[in-house]
Write a structure and sequence with these properties.
The N and C termini lie far apart (38 Å). Helix 2 crosses helix 4. By secondary structure, the protein is of the alpha+beta class. It is globular and about 50 Å long. 26% of the residues lie in helices and 37% in strands.
């Protein structure tokens, strides 16, 4: 499988979601974030977009978001129980396995996801994580976990001109949770978990010592 090509295509895809304002419907608003959705062109579900301003420099925010084993994210992100490196492809591209806990009061069983992830930096200081599902010979489905599939998803940290201690954070989720979940469970889970994600991210950034 051409992991590099697949990972780079995701980065282009997320930037097109960020640029394209059409068709998004707001489904949740809080002080931290606006969450909107539109039908996915990747699978028979929705793509969700979160957009919010986080108090903290892009470096601090990225420190909390970056997809690395033993990183800060497993401590604050309630939807990431474990994060494992399966294979390092290049300096910026890796194959990782993410384990998620049960959710929605136990209706959603623990899941695992295997993704290729590209970390990309742009000239304007924007930094992004870009992920999508792949198969990997050393990571077949495991008992005790429903194998889910992430379609192009990730987070984009954008510096705010004149505001060095604030960061605009876009997040995109379009996940086939696998198994036999009622659509209504999935549709209610993502907006609320994304709002929680932004609240917890803000707290995590605040608790970081100065970088």
């Amino acid at each position: 499988m051409d992991y590099e090509h697949k990972a780079k295509a995701v980065a282009d895809c997320l930037m097109s979601y960020k640029r394209d304002e059409s068709g998004w419907k707001v489904c949740k608003k809080s002080n931290d974030v606006i969450v909107s959705w539109r039908p996915s062109s990747e699978f028979p579900g929705n793509v969700y977009k979160g957009e919010g301003i986080v108090s903290g420099s892009p470096e601090k925010v990225w420190e909390c978001l970056k997809p690395v084993p033993n990183g800060i994210r497993v401590k604050w992100d309630n939807n990431v129980k474990k994060f494992e490196l399966v294979e390092q492809i290049t300096e910026d591209i890796s194959i990782c396995r993410t384990v998620t806990p049960s959710a929605a009061m136990g209706i959603i069983a623990p899941r695992d996801f295997v993704d290729v992830i590209l970390v990309k930096q742009y000239e304007d200081g924007t930094i992004s994580s870009n992920a999508t599902n792949v198969s990997h010979p050393s990571c077949p489905p495991q008992s005790g976990y429903v194998r889910g599939f992430n379609h192009p998803c990730g987070c984009v940290c954008v510096p705010i001109s004149g505001e060095p201690n604030k960061t605009q954070v876009f997040s995109f989720f379009q996940t086939d949770l696998g198994g036999f979940l009622p659509r209504s469970v999935v549709d209610s889970f993502f907006p609320s978990s994304m709002a929680e994600f932004y609240g917890n991210l803000g707290k995590a950034v605040k608790s970081l010592k100065d970088l």
